[in-house]
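Hello,

Our lab assistant flagged a job as stuck in the queue for most of the afternoon. It eventually completed. Since we weren't sure the result was trustworthy after the delay, we are filing this so someone can double-check. Below is the sequence as submitted and the structure that was eventually returned. Let us know if re-running is recommended.
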Amino acid sequence: MNLAQMWPITKAWMQKCGADPDNSILRLTCYAHAFNGGLLIDEHAETTVPRLLAVGETAGGPHGADRLGGNMFSSGQVFGEIAGKYAAGLARESDFPARRETAPPSIPWGGGPGEARLDAWRGRLQRLASRDLLVVRTGEGLRHYQEEARLLEEELSSAAVSSGREAQKLLELKNLLLTGRLVAQAALKRTESRGSHYREDFPAMSEDPMWRKAIALENGNCSMEEL
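-- returned structure --
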């Protein structure tokens, strides 16, 4: 089976970019296919937060530590229908409180760093995550990520914006920093390898019952919760 049969969209995209996959030598490299895990859901696609539903790559219930191949069909299509019907039933049976207005995040305006600098900050964080948070992790790399992310967060703390587009990029970057910090902190806590989490400095899966638990973080504090 050739590339055109397996991934016709990929071949078309490569040709559009000027590459000839049929007659050229292709250089292959590792890439983050997906971020495994997500929110724990029940058979109705409801999370541990009442009335908050999740499906697809947002959810972690149907596929555990992996989600490759046809697993996303059940996650997206099957659980999408389940979640939709369950949400409709909740809406019919519930008296929802009046919508509350929430204040937008406070962002200093005027004299912003510009989109180019915001993009550079984002690229810097992505390179850090690619180095220290992907498949193979070490305690040294995770601590390096935490320190570099802390320095970047300090730079962002006083960043102003001068347009709605800059505000969007700044908020996205702050969310990426938060997510990365949670991943690094949880990965440091788990000194063993399990599922898609691999610690090069702790390569074995421990049989200690304490590790048969999920790691939860709240207000920067780690705790172990029963699976």
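-- support follow-up --
The delay was a queue issue, not a problem with the job. The result is valid. The first strand starts at residue 136 and ends at 137. The radius of gyration is 21 Å.
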